């Protein structure tokens, strides 16, 4: 306590006493330093966060594709319709009876799409008119046969009468010859009379004999004429019997029955049905072989050099979008055809593609498309063509490297459709940006 009461030392001359530090100033500097360090750290943190967010956004909004190894297939799409290479047409029979061009009425008809066997009945027509005419021809045949029998009997009677006349003439000649043998006891006048009688009898007999031969030939000719007439009537009857048989139509081969369409009054196009009247010679049905389905289409004459027989193709049906079939080109037309009279200056070439793995879905007259492979490169690196960029003569792509994108020069090969061949600069499995960032 005494020390507290002792006086303070006096300052030396020329020396000012030090002022005591202001309370709290050191703490201000320390706080300022802490705030500065914290602000710098926070700025760096938020800047890094924003950069990472921008990279994430860039990666999120970019569309990437993976470089893959495969075959570059150069395809040309064709359109057409399905049909069968092997088939048999069935037409309405043309009969041989009078008014054979008159329509026939369908009595039975196999439903379209039915599977049929060879010899199975697929359609029949009303045979009543043909049966009536057959009855008339049979009556005519019976009349001809009876007339031939009457003629035969008549000719036999005439022949027997001619034989009797000939025998009578022969007897007269023989009697005259016997009388001639008695000339030794006859007078000169009687001798002359007997000689003239022999000559007259001989001439009469010879004339009758010659006439008999001619009459026999005439009778044979008349009888043959009637026989031919009867044979013609027999053929007439047989022809109409075949007409009745043709009223019932059988399948010529195994396959599927496809009923054809007709245009009804009013313009409606519908399939044939029981009760319809159809004109002879009209195509009414087609029996197809389900194992020989194909697609028929056309190619432009300028594309003809790109197609070859045996090229693979992929078939799709409009009715069944999920169905895909393998096919190959098996026929290319030799001559170009015109699609219509209005466009006579255009020429197309027909082409047919055989479907190799057809199933029950493939029916005739379905709309179809065919992707024909006209060229290909096997075992190459493929990338989307739109991912390849060009600038200042340089060809490059952007390759993903973690969260960053690397600009990398590449060597581009052939391009077809959406795909391009890369021969250098990237590896299989790398991801590239489809569009420039």
UniProtKB/TrEMBL annotation:
Listed Pfam families: CzcB_C
InterPro entries in the record: CzcB_C, UPF0194_transport
Keyword Membrane: yes
Protein location: Cell envelope
Organism encoding this protein: Paludibaculum fermentans
Disordered: annotated segments: 1-20
Coiled coil start-end: 141-186
Transmembrane segment boundaries: 27-46
Residue ranges occupied by any CzcB-like C-terminal circularly permuted SH3-like domain in the UniProt entry: 384-435
This protein's UniProt keywords: Coiled coil, Membrane, Transmembrane, Transmembrane helix
Domain of life: Bacteria
Full protein name: HlyD family efflux transporter periplasmic adaptor subunit
A GO-annotated cellular component: cell envelope
Keyword Transmembrane: yes
Record's compositionally biased regions (Pro residues): 8-20
UniProt xrefs under Gene3D superfamilies: 2.40.30.170, 2.40.420.20
């Amino acid at each position: 306590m005494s020390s507290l009461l002792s006086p303070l030392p006096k300052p030396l001359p020329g020396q000012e006493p030090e002022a005591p530090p202001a309370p709290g100033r050191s703490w201000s500097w320390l706080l300022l330093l802490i705030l500065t360090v914290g602000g710098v750290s926070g700025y760096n943190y938020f800047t890094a966060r924003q950069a990472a967010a921008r990279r994430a956004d860039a990666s999120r909004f970019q569309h990437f594709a993976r470089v893959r190894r495969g075959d570059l297939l150069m395809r040309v799409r064709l359109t057409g319709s399905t049909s069968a290479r092997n088939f048999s047409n069935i037409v309405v029979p043309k009969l041989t009876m009078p008014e054979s061009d008159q329509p026939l009425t369908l009595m039975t008809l196999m439903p379209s799409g039915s599977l049929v066997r060879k010899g199975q009945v697929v359609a029949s027509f009303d045979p009543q008119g043909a049966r009536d005419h057959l009855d008339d021809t049979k009556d005519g045949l019976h009349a001809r046969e009876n007339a031939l029998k009457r003629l035969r009997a008549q000719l036999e009677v005439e022949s027997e009468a001619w034989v009797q006349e000939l025998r009578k003439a022969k007897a007269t000649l023989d009697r005259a010859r016997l009388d001639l043998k008695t000339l030794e006891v006859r007078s000169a006048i009687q001798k002359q009379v007997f000689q003239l009688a022999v000559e007259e009898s001989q001439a009469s007999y010879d004339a009758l004999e010659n006439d008999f031969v001619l009459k026999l030939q005439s009778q044979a000719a008349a009888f043959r004429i009637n026989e031919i007439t009867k044979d013609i009537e027999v053929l007439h009857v047989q022809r109409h019997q075949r007409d009745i048989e043709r009223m019932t139509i059988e399948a010529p081969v195994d396959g599927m029955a496809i009923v054809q369409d007709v245009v009804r009054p009013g313009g409606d196009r519908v399939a044939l049905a029981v009760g319809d009247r159809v004109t002879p010679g009209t195509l009414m049905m087609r029996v197809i072989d389900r194992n020989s389905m194909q697609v028929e289409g056309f190619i432009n004459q300028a594309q003809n050099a790109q197609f070859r027989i045996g090229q693979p193709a992929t078939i799709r049906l409009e009715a069944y979008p999920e169905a895909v079939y393998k096919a190959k080109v098996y026929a290319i037309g030799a001559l170009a055809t015109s699609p219509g009279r209005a466009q006579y200056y255009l020429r197309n070439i027909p082409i047919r593609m055989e479907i190799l793995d057809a199933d029950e879905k493939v029916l005739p007259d379905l709309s179809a498309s065919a992707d024909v492979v006209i060229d290909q490169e096997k075992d190459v690196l493929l990338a989307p063509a739109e991912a390849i960029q060009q600038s200042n003569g340089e060809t490059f792509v952007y390759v993903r490297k973690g969260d960053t994108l690397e600009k990398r020069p590449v060597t581009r090969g052939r391009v077809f459709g959406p795909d391009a061949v890369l021969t250098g600069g990237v590896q299989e499995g790398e991801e590239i940006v489809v569009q420039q960032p």
